[in-house]
Design brief:
There is one protein chain. This protein has a single domain, classed as Transposase Inhibitor Protein From Tn5, Chain A, domain 1, CATH 3.90.350.10. The strands form 2 sheets. Strands 1, 2, 3, 4, 5, 6, 9, 10, 11, 12 and 13 form an 11-stranded mixed beta sheet that branches. A two-stranded antiparallel sheet has the order 7-8. The chain is α+β, with helices and mostly antiparallel strands and 415 residues long. Helices cover 25% and strands 21% of the residues. It has 9 helices and 13 strands. Helix 1 crosses helix 7 and helix 2 packs across helix 3.
Length: 415
Amino acid sequence: MVYDALIAGRVDTDRLRRVLVETLPEARPGEPLMFGVDVSPLPRPDPRFVDQLSMVQVRGAGGDRFLPGWPISILVGLSWGASSWVDPLDARRIVPGCDHTAVLIAQVQALMADLEASRRCGPGAVAPLVMFDSGYPATLIGHALAGYEAQVLGRVRSDRVFYFPPEPSEPEPGRGRPAVHGARFECANPATHPEPDVRITAQAERYGQIEVAAWHRLHQAITRTGAWAGYPAGQRLPLVEGTLIRITVQRLAHEGDPKPVWLWHHAPPGTAVDVDLLWKGYLRRFDQEHFHRFAKVHLGLARARVCSAEAADRWITLVIAGYAQLRAAAVVVADQPRPWQRKTVPGKIPTPCRVRAGFRRLRAHLGTPAGAVKIVRPGRGRPPGRKNAPKPRQPVYNKSDITLMARLARGTPLP
C-alpha cells in the first residue's frame, strides 16, 4: 500500500514548503535568518530498473565509493546554539544533466518568494543569509541572486585568487581602457595579504585562540570559460565584489596541522557586513549533517526501494514532513531516557532521537485526519496465462552538464 501510494500519489511540495517557512523560528533582533544548502546522496547500488540515476559519492568505513544513486539538494533553516535540530524546508533531486548550483539557485529563489509571501522578509528586515560549502561557485551564485535581497556566504578553496578594485587614476590618451583588476590577493600566499580591514580574536576550549581577518571589496577574475562561456559577447563580464574572511585556530580537536578556513561573503548594496556574526553563523551550517544522518538512519530516507524517480521525490517529501512533526512535538513530548542514557538538561528540548522514541505515546492522543477503513472485495487477480512484462533497463548518468550554469551566467531563466 505504501509503495502504491508513492507511485500513484501526489504531494504539493510548494504548499508544504510555504507552511514550513511560516513556522520558522524568529531571528534575533538585528540578525538575519540563516539557511544552509548541501547535497546528500541516496545510493541505489541495484540500478537495473531504476530511472534517472547518477553517480554519487558515498562515504563509509572502507573509504569513499562512487555508486549509482540520486543526489538530493537539501535546504534547511539554521539557528543558534549547540543543537542537532534544524528546520528542513526543501529537498530536490538533482536530475541527470543538471548542476547542483542551478538547483541551489532555484531553491533560494523559491525560498525568497515564500519569505516575502509569509512576511518574514521585507523592507527594513535584514537580508537572509544562505551558506554552502566549497563545492559551489560562490561568485556565480552571488551574480545569479543579484536581484534578490539575500546574503551569500560560501567556503572557498585555499588556492583561490582574488583582486582588489583598481586604484583610481586619471585616464591618459592612448593608454587603452582603464584597469579592471587591482592588487592581487592569493589565499595561499601570505605575502599578498595586506593589513585586514577587520580583525577579531576569540578563545575556544577545543581550538585555543581563534583569529578572524576580513578584507572588503574583493572579487575574482572571470573568464569566458565553463559557466561563463555563453555570456553575451558584447557585454563586459561582471565584477562581483564581496568580503573575504580567513579563520585560523591555534590547534585542532584531533591531531593534525590546523589550516586556515576561507569564506567569501556577498550581500545586497547597503547591507552592513558583520564579520563576527558571519564566521560564527557558518559554524552552525554543520548542524545540517545531523539531519542527513538522522533522516537516513532513523526515518528511512534511503530505505525506500522504489524504481521511479518521481516516487522517490514523494518519499523524500514525506520524510521532511515527518521530521517537521517531530520538530513541532519536541516541546511537548515527555523525555523518558533509557537507564544508560543521560537526562535532558532542564530548559532544553530533547534530541531528535529522544523525541522520536517518545512520539508514539503522543501520537495516540492526536487522532488522524484519515477516514475509516473501507471494506472491499479482493480483485480477481491476474488472468490465467498472462505474465508480467519485463521492466525496461535504465542507464546511469555519469557526466555533468554545464549548459544550465551557462544559462545562469547569461541571466536566462531556468527551464
